[in-house]
Design a protein that fits this description.
Layout (H helix, E strand, L loop, with lengths): L2 E4 L4 E5 L11 E5 L6 E2 L17 H18 L7 H20 L7
Antiparallel strand pairs: 1-2, 2-3, 3-4
């Protein structure tokens, strides 16, 4: 089932059959000012593995290991923590509530 974010300026949709940690890479789509969704590419700044890296499980695991290696080399981690998971779940709950009620809600 797709996850959708609706705003005044447009809509973002993420679709996948399994979790983002396993299986296929999520399909990202967006629209601004019309009704037809278009596929969106993930910006280069969020790619940590080489462009020819295999997709699916290898890609997702490779992304995590690349960030882990960066943390070892720099001493600064960008790997999510338990607190990150709590924040994400609160964000998802806000999205769900906004969708259920049809209201725009602030995101803290």
């Amino acid at each position: 089932m797709p996850s959708r974010v609706y705003r005044r300026e447009g809509t973002l949709v993420a679709t996948g059959s399994v979790s983002s940690q396993r299986g296929e890479t999520l399909r990202l789509q967006g629209v601004r000012g019309s009704h037809a969704l278009s596929d969106l590419e993930v910006p280069e700044r969020f790619m940590y593995v080489p462009a020819d890296f295999p997709r699916g499980d290898p890609f997702n695991v490779g992304q995590m290991y690349a960030l882990f290696a960066e943390a070892i080399h720099t001493g600064q981690s960008r790997i999510p923590t338990f607190d990150t998971a709590v924040e994400l779940h609160r964000f998802i709950d806000t999205i769900q509530q906004a969708s259920d009620t049809g209201r725009e809600l602030p995101v803290a």
